Amino acid sequence: MMLPTVLVLASDPVANVRFNVAKTFQRIHPILDADALAMHVKPCLEKLTQDVDHDVQYFASEAYEKLRTIHHSYRQKEDIDELYLVQEKYNEQLKSLYETSNKAKAEIESRTDKT
After folding, report:
1. What does the domain layout of the chain look like in residue ranges?
2. pTM of this structure
3. Residue 6: pLDDT above 90?
4. 38, 58, 60, 87: which has the fewest C-beta neighbours closer than 10 Å?
């Protein structure tokens, strides 16, 4: 994978190389998993936002903000998916409880009818 190479280039002495690292992260983020983004890309971009070169700072900040926004959107989607699963489970439990209640009611009615 190219991530290790890009991470090494983040320390290159040439500013144009470093700001292209930030641009590269913006382009390759869709193929990176969440762990790689959190453990490698985010810290690297945070470091580049403090770079001595203003162009590097700019492109790193732009990339960092874009990745942060995207990560936040993914997290919201994961939260929504989790809520749907919880709701499905709740609906199943509610249906089971309703069925049990109807069976109990029918049994009580059948006992009342016999007396």
Report:
1. 3-114
2. 0.60
3. yes
4. 87
Torsion of CA 74, 30, 28, 1, to 10 degrees: 110
Residues 47-83 have pLDDT tens digits of: 999 999 999 999 999 999 988 776 655 555 666 667 6
Per-residue DSSP letters for the chain? --HHHHHHHTT-SSHHHHHHHHHHHHHHGGGS-HHHIIIIIHHHHHHHTT-SSHHHHHHHHHHHHHHHHHHHHHHHHHHHHHHHHHHHHHHHHHHHHHHHHHHHHHHHHHHHHH-
